[in-house]
Every structure is written in structure tokens, then in C-alpha cells.
């Protein structure tokens, strides 16, 4: 047998072993009203396993964390079109992995693109709290004419109304429509990320430092200076003289601070820091883009201390459930006709606001504009009625779920049926994109989330009667 044949057989044996190992892993399936792993064990208690004391005393304020190994690691609950309460289970999965032990502080970032990327990264990595120290100015890298918003419904029109700028200010005159759309989508991702984050703003560094101290957080500032400690196990142990923080490499409560793109953290922040840290690099470049550095540093902190994952009090989790569950319900309860009506009312009121602004400025108002403006109060009352009913129905739909959440999805990857692709319709038809899971638009009707919430509202109404 020659060496190439031996290598091939060895590779095949390794592949077979890997496949056998994969097949023995816990793959979630649904039987009746219970979730089961491939090995047959129920994963209905995933929630309790992930969140520690979640199934016990609900009044405890003790921080709980996901066990690093053991029984909890055996049950992996995946997203599936056959999974009931899917969107709530996914929200519960995110809540159970959220941490409040770690705060990301962004000090005087001046680029909105970096802000967007940092917020999206924080949400994806499970950091709930983002503190932002306001810069003197923020350089917008995408300006929309006429205050036009950005969402999926108008993303194809962005290029017609947008001006793309460099972070330093000058207009990018050669920017293509595709580049503008990409930047607009990036902003949209960040805006959606903030729906699930707790963002706190500060006017100055001093106030932020004082607040961190009051809440018991140590301050770690990122710094390229040679006094900084390497953000590795050896680097932290060296800083601590060979010790740890009560057996961990990360303090129980810590804020990691990222400074402005040009010069990093301010001297005031560096002087206040309990530790200055840097990420080891291996090339001529001794610094990274701010958003990239944030992603790598925060990920490294989870690697150094896996117990950061899920480190949140039960009270904090319950607050998130109340807000998130109701928000998810409100996004799905309205019918298509109601959504269209709400959109028209919102646009009508925005136009009325423009007319009112013209009136206050003493500009000429045409008869049609005055007639439109005269109906503003009635239209506002109609919109308020829709919003108030939606808010009430949303609370009804999730009231019982907040106190008795379903077991969570523990692997946040979407099923192929639920994957989506943010590219243009014509692009999806292009040869390289055809038949990919994210572009096929697989029809899914079973356990539709909108129907689920509407049924719960109807059930609650019947109980009242």
C-alpha cells in the first residue's frame, strides 16, 4: 500500500469517526407536546439547565450561569419549522445566554458605521448593556434625504435618496447604488440589534466612570501602550501576580472600554482603569478597525471566562421577557390591512408635521395642505387607538409565557426554512445564488408565529367572557 493510499484511508477513517460522533450527538426532534433529543431524553428542562436557578426560587437575585459541561451540554435544542412557540423559544434562548457581568463602553466613537457594527456585535455575542459616552460630533457615513427611514420595504429606493460619505466627512462621489444599499442595510441591522439591547448614554467620561464605580464594575480600558497587559490567560495571571479573580480570569463585574477611532481611550479613562489591556497582533499593523477590535476583544473575554455566558439575575431575565415577548407579539399581531393602515396614518401625520412647520415659519400654505392639516388630530387619535390596542393585545398574548417560559432554543442557528437573504430580487435569481437555503423562500405554515399570538389573544378574551 503506497503512502497516498494510506493517507486516503486514514482520512476516510477520520471522516467516518467524525460522522459517527455527530450522529450520536443530541439532535432535537418533536414528539407530541415534548421536545426530545436524538438520544431520547427530553429537553423540556433546557431553560432550567441553562439559567441555573431559573426553575427554583424565582425571587432570588443571585447571578446564575450556564454550567460549563455536564447534563446541560447533552441537550441541544435546534430551530425547526415543526417547533411550536418557535420565536418565543428563540427569545428565551437569547435571554438565557445574556450576560450583565460584562458592559461594553464606547468612549467618543465618531463614526456611525462603527457604532452600528459594535451594537450588532454586542447583541450577537450576548452582551446586554452598552454604555456610550457621547462624542463632540458623529460623522454620518450615510445621509438620507427628506428624513427617509431605512427598512426592508424601501431598501431598493435608498440609492435614489442617499449621500454616502467617508468617516472623515467628504462625500464619496463614486459610490455605487449597491454600496449605498449595503451601508443602509448595515444601519438597519444595528437598529434591529438595539431593540434587544440596553443602551445608556453619558455626556462625559467622568459621569460614566462614577456610574461604573457605583454599580461595582471594574474598568478595563483597551490601550496600545506598552503598559497594557496582554488579554490572554498568561497576561492576566502575570498582572495578578499569578492569581485570579476568585478562581476566574475575569472580574465578577467588569466594563471593557473602547476609545475613539483616532487616538483610543482618553487619558481620563486610562487613569481611572483598573487594568489596561491589548489584543496580541502578529503583523506590521499594530491596530484594528474599532468595530473589529471590539468583536475580537469581547469574544476573547468569553473565551477566557466561559461563565460570562448567561450571567444575569433572574429579575433581569424576567424584565427582558416582559419587554421582548410583548415586542415579538406586537410585530406579528397586526393583519396586513392593519399594518398598511398604520403606515398610511404615520405618513399622513408626518406630512401634517411638515405643514405645521411651514405655518410656524410664515410660509404660504395651500388650501389642500390646510384641509389635510385640519384632520391631523382625528388621524392621530385613530393611530393612537391602533397602537393602544396592539400594546394591550401583546401583553395578553404573552402574560402567561413570561412567568412560565418554554424551554429555549439552545443553538441559535436558523433552520434552512427560516433563513433569509438581504439581496435584491434580481440578484437572488443569478446563477451563483440559485437553490441556496437563504434564497429559496421555503414555504412554512406549520406553527406560524403570527397565528400563535393571535390564538393566545383570542383564548384570553374567551376566558374573560
Name the structural class.
alpha/beta
The helix/strand series, from N terminus to C terminus, equals HEEHHEHEEHEHEHEEHEHEHHHHHHH
Q: Strand portion, in percent? A: 5-15%
Question: Taking Cα atoms only, what radius of gyration do you get, to the nearest Å?
Answer: 26 Å
Task: Quickly describe the structure.
The chain has 465 residues and is an alpha/beta fold. Helices cover 46% and strands 11% of the residues. It has helices spanning 3-24, 46-51, 86-97, 112-125, 158-161, 177-194, 205-214, 233-239, 267-272, 290-304, 314-333, 336-360, 367-374, 376-403, 425-429, 449-464, and strands spanning 29-31, 34-36, 99-107, 127-133, 142-144, 162-164, 198-202, 218-222, 229-230, 254-258, 275-278.
